[in-house]
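Why does this matter for the project? Reviewers at the last site visit asked to see concrete outputs rather than summary tables. In response, this paragraph embeds two records directly. Each consists of the residue sequence and, immediately after it, the corresponding structure tokens. Nothing has been edited or filtered.
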Amino acid sequence: MARFKRQKSLIGGLFSSQNKKRFLLSVVGFLLAVFLGVWALYRKEIEEIRFSIYQKFILTTHAHGLKLENIFIRGREKVSQDQIFQALGVPLHGPMLLVDLEATHQRLSSLPWVKEATLERHWPDTLFITIEERLPFALWQHEKNLYLVDKDGVIIPEGNLSIYGTLPSITGANAPKYLPDLLEALSLFPSLKQRVVSATWIGNRRWNIHLENKITLLLPEKEVQKSLERFIKYETTHHLTTAAKKRIDLRIPQRIIVE
């Protein structure tokens, strides 16, 4: 009986908690090595089988009605249908499951005229695409070239600019980058904004705005809104642009210089 207990104690020691963990780790390591070896040896064949199963699955869903039958496009004017279909990557009547909304959104957003795009997939066969196009706002004259820009200061690649000749013009290096700030300030003074025909970004620091009666307003680097408030106040009471011959300097706080 004592001998049996000693044998049982010996066996228990061999299969202690620590030894069990080592044994299990050895088994797991062995199985992992076998799996990686098989994968490395038959990787190409496994990939081909996986791709074949995937293709059959797509074809089966397509045969049972999951196909792109209807595409509704809203908001498109400058963007062509061909550009949209190329961005979609799946032809009409193609498998619905192959429509990658995220990738299509990225491709649409990269188009020059597209500001924002949204896509909605309605199962089993319909896709809605909504395009928000960029709105041309000004012509930027830089180094003897003209560029079309929107209100965000983004350049819109466009070959034929003749139809945009009535838009306001801006000049100066980096002018499109700072155009949104100027528009934000002018938006508070609609009557003045309507009179602006062009603007010049000066020394990469501040704006001059040119009015329809050929009077130039020299704006400060900072506190543009306050300077415009001061101008509107005295324009209403003293008709500054009528009295001025060339320009009105608003760069000095609490002062207006009429020339």
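We now turn to the second protein, recorded in exactly the same manner.
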Amino acid sequence: MNSLNLHLSHLNYNYSQIQKQLNSETQIVAVVKAGAYGSASEAVAKRLEALGVDYLAVAYAEEGEVLRSYGIKIPIMVFYPQLDSLKTIIEKALEPCLYSRSLLMAFKGLLKDTNKTKYPIHIKYNTGLYRVGFSPEDTDWVISQAASNQFNLKSVYSHLAASEDQRPSQSCDQQIRLFEAIKKAHSAQNSLIPKFHLLNSSGVFNYPELQYDMVRCGIAFHGFANHPKWDALLKPIAVLESRITQIHEVKKGSYVGYDHGWKAPVDSIIATLPLGHADGIGRHFGHHKGSVFIHGEEAPIVGNVCMDMLMIDVTNIKCKPQDTVCFFGTTYNTAASFSKQGQSISYEILSGLGPRIKRVINK
């Protein structure tokens, strides 16, 4: 009925393209949070592990626990550990990214209670994104705490708020200056110096001179880097397809969809597809904002997107029930271009695809 076809050979290609941007000694953190950006976390994580990434990274401990259940052996960072998941982090040998005093002290206390020492951790600083992270003003306190026998500080990092912005970027430059000061302070310690990282997918292409010791890539593995020039170096891995359920002949002046969302301007042919906002195709794609492709021809979405279905205008397209319909693919109608029609981004459309869509792995 509906399928998300995943081409892992394209993931291999994207990995090689990312490597070309990096120094040979730069480590890669492959971000596979949100079900590997809505794809298939097991298949993608295992392929990335086989390709040789140094780390996997998830948002929450529960996601890391799932990866361990797949048999993933390499280190797994947890970007946003919550207080109630700290035991899981230890039980599953995950590596927390600590970002607040309360979280750090809670984890330190838990390590003491469980007689753990030299446990691998990462420290996140907020230099301007204001999502999570220690303030740069906390640097001295963090350094003193990280020296505890309970911890093995593996890396120190931050996140650029607008890494895809055209250079020079005043906001990015300010963040870089703050991070350099943080790096200098940590590097001045006599203890083992941690690794440093700042760049996400866009940053790898826009700030290659700032790759430090590691980079974090997520959406780039799926074929996108938030700029047409960089996107052209990558291959999208996902193709979302559906099939026509039914076709209606609609007379001029008749209404289609909830709340009379579309009025036929002429005698029209309308096809119904078994995808809706419960599957991740939001209502903002309705009313001719979004289009799909049948036999290479564009068909606009008409009226309001329903929970389980949507309607498209196929008046000028030869088609029949069960014909394949492409929402996005690997060439001109990619997830980035489709999402842009609904004033969204590739991250949102990919990660929002629901579980009713069958994932098909193409090696």
